[in-house]
Write a structure and sequence with these properties.
13 helices, 4-stranded mixed β-sheet, 5-stranded parallel β-sheet, 32% helix, 425 residues, alpha/beta, disordered N terminus
Length: 425
């Protein structure tokens, strides 16, 4: 009897233990899935500055991978406007640029007209992100095709896919050359490739004369950092188009040729600058940046002769195109259009046709809206861009026009800008 009781007791004990084990398996403990998502890694200034020496083969990082949206993609149709904002280099030291710099008053007024400060730029990026814009490439919006029946090539506006609830936005940056005057008036001085494989900006404090590397004072590195922290701002890994002249090199490197007082020493320096900039160009391309022409000499295309335009374009291909590769995008300096390119129907001027024959297909000017027109009898697109800067931030007329992106009253830094007034009060 006792043996049977002991046997039954052991059996019930085993069954009870088994039930407890199965119950425990159904409960969710502290797993990786239930842990909170880590915050984006902050890009902080390293204890020792990244080496400014170019890396021959930069290693791609996780930030290079396109963001995979968690929401469905929807079509942005061919007749829906793709907005386009463009910036000049941002002012890193506004107190110096607007007030303390020994530059002529006309220079400081020009900076107020055509630039934004780092603080204003940061607020604009945050606002367009909050309003649901996502970055797209100009070559994603328009592309060239060949008619299978006639063999004729034409440009077309594409239907693009964006995350549901989002709107496409192109951003471009003119004059990302780091001109000599900028080095004296409160801007960063060049782009460098850090030992961490990231793009950094070299900067010299105009007050202390200390030179250092930063990702917080330059339009390009700020956008890089913003996208690392907000990857859904760039669903396909696109960032912006860098519009380059050539007369003072590119990206802060003096790569230009000159026929004035040239010698072997200057040529050796030019060649060393070309070698130094190539890893930066390569890394920018790897991480979503692309390039366009702003002409070699920042020339006003509306007033130049055919011979002058041809000489300038050939020089751009030689001094800039050899470094950044082919591009089909031409940004008009001063927004000045060559003859026959805007609202002229299908009647094209000779200068426009020659520029198109050199491989340019997307011709970008400046306007009061993100206008675009696909030409029908020539393979070309003309378009206008909007310009966040001092002129539009101060303007009452522009206040409403730019309200789809930001409220200028919340963006403009009137405490540091010159006391030139606003017209939206």
């Amino acid at each position: 009897m006792m043996k049977r009781f002991a046997k039954d007791f052991l059996l019930w004990t085993l069954l009870f233990s088994l039930v407890l084990s199965l119950t425990a398996c159904g409960k969710k403990g502290p797993t990786a899935e239930s842990s909170p998502t880590p915050d984006p890694v902050e890009s902080v200034e390293p204890s020792s500055e990244p080496s400014a020496e170019p890396s021959s083969e930069p290693t791609p990082t996780a930030s290079d991978e396109p963001y995979t949206p968690e929401v469905p993609l929807v079509a942005w149709g061919k007749n829906q406007v793709v907005e386009h904002l463009f910036f000049h280099p941002v002012i890193a030291y506004p107190q110096w640029a607007f007030h303390d710099c020994p530059a002529p008053e006309s220079d400081r007024t020009g900076l107020d007209d055509w630039m934004v400060t780092v603080d204003e730029y940061n607020k604009i990026l945050q606002s367009v992100y909050d309003k649901g814009y996502v970055l797209v490439s100009m070559n994603e919006v328009w592309s060239e095709y060949t008619d299978p029946d006639t063999g004729v090539t034409r440009m077309r506006r594409n239907t693009i896919m964006v995350p549901e609830g989002k709107k496409p936005l192109i951003i471009s940056f003119d004059d990302t050359n780091y001109y000599d005057y900028m080095l004296e008036q409160g801007f960063t001085s060049k782009l460098v490739l850090g030992s961490d494989g990231e793009i950094w900006a070299e900067c010299t404090d105009p007050y202390t004369k200390e030179t250092f590397l930063t990702q917080d004072l330059d339009a390009i590195t700020i956008l890089d950092k913003f996208i690392r922290e907000h990857p859904d701002f760039s669903p396909n890994g696109v960032k912006g188009c860098l519009s380059l002249t050539g007369y003072q090199g590119i990206l802060g490197y003096r790569t230009q040729r000159s026929t004035e007082d040239w010698n072997d020493e200057k040529e050796a320096f030019r060649l060393s600058e070309r070698e130094a900039v190539m890893p930066i160009v390569r890394r920018l391309k790897e991480t979503g940046w692309y390039f366009g022409s702003h002409t070699w000499g920042h020339i006003r295309l509306s007033t130049k002769s055919m011979a002058a335009i041809q000489a300038d374009t050939e020089r751009w291909f030689r001094d800039v195109g050899e470094l950044v590769g082919e591009t089909n995008i031409l940004f008009y300096p001063h927004g000045a259009r060559p003859d026959g390119d805007h609202d002229q129907g299908e009647d094209y001027g000779e200068q426009f046709k020659w520029l198109q024959s050199q491989g340019f297909r997307i011709f970008a000017s400046v306007g009061i809206e993100s206008y675009s027109q696909v030409k029908k009898t020539i393979s070309a697109v003309i378009c206008d861009r909007l310009h966040p800067d001092g002129t539009t931030l101060r303007s009452g007329k522009a206040l409403k026009r730019y309200s789809q992106f930001y409220d200028a009253r919340e963006i403009i830094d009137l405490d540091v800008r010159p006391k030139l007034g606003v017209t939206w009060e």
